[in-house]
Each structure stands twice: as structure tokens, then as C-alpha cells.
UniProtKB/TrEMBL annotation:
Record InterPro entries: E3-bd_dom_sf (IPR036625), Lsr2-like_dimerization (IPR042261), Lsr2_dim_dom (IPR024412), Lsr2_DNA-bd (IPR055370)
Domain Lsr2 DNA-binding, residue spans: 69-101
Domain Lsr2 dimerization, chain residue ranges per copy: 1-57
GO molecular function, one term: DNA binding
Source lineage: Bacteria, Bacillati, Actinomycetota, Actinomycetes, Kitasatosporales
Keyword annotations of the record: DNA-binding
Keyword DNA-binding among record annotations: yes
Protein name, entry field: Lsr2 family protein
Any Pfam family hit: Lsr2_DNA-bd
């Protein structure tokens, strides 16, 4: 048996039929809203002065921060024991041990 599924967009402002989904971003947060042609035009008209005065952001995406590479856990445990620092034989190594190790460089 064949089926036909119809998806109808509903205008998020007035509940009428929407013609498109508009995407926009403010303060680093992205939004999308389903709008009729009239409401989409109103939104674009309202934003036009700000868009014209603004700069386009590159699509390179998020900026990345460099993270420090942590030492091998086995090496760190051996170093800590040699220094008289109590460290669990398995599981998570406390941050204070990493901090102490970093201070020896």
C-alpha cells in the first residue's frame, strides 16, 4: 500500500501557513523560525540596517584552543611514587599530581 506524507510548515508567529524556515544568529546563538513570506520579509527588513553595517563571519566554524598534552598515566604514577606522593594504582589521577608534575619542568 502506498502512502503520501505531507509536511506543512506552520508560521511560528501567527499559526498560519509558513513558506520558509529562516535561520539567524544573535550573540553566538543560532535560531531558526518558520515564517510566511510576509513575516520573512518583515524580519529581513528589520535586520537589514544591522546586516548592512555588520561584517560577515567566516564559515571556518569555531575557534579552537590548544590544550596541553598530559603525560602518560603510568609515567606520572611512577614519578609521583618516587616523589612520595600518594597516587591510586588505577583510575583517575588527582589534578594535584598533574600540577606537581608540571611544576618540575
Amino acid at each position: 500500500m502506498a502512502q503520501r506524507v505531507a509536511i506543512t510548515l506552520i508560521d511560528d508567529l501567527d499559526g498560519g501557513q509558513a513558506a520558509e524556515t529562516v535561520q539567524f544568529s544573535v550573540d553566538g546563538r543560532s535560531y531558526e523560525i518558520d515564517l510566511s513570506s510576509g513575516h520573512a520579509d518583515e524580519l529581513r527588513t528589520a535586520l537589514a540596517p544591522y546586516i548592512n553595517a555588520g561584517r560577515r563571519q567566516s564559515r571556518s566554524g569555531r575557534s579552537f584552543t590548544r590544550t596541553a598534552v598530559r603525560p602518560d598515566p603510568g609515567t606520572l604514577r611512577a614519578w609521583a611514587r618516587a616523589q612520595g606522593i600518594e597516587v591510586p594504582p588505577r583510575g583517575r589521577i588527582p589534578q594535584r599530581v598533574y600540577d606537581a608534575f608540571a611544576g618540575t619542568d
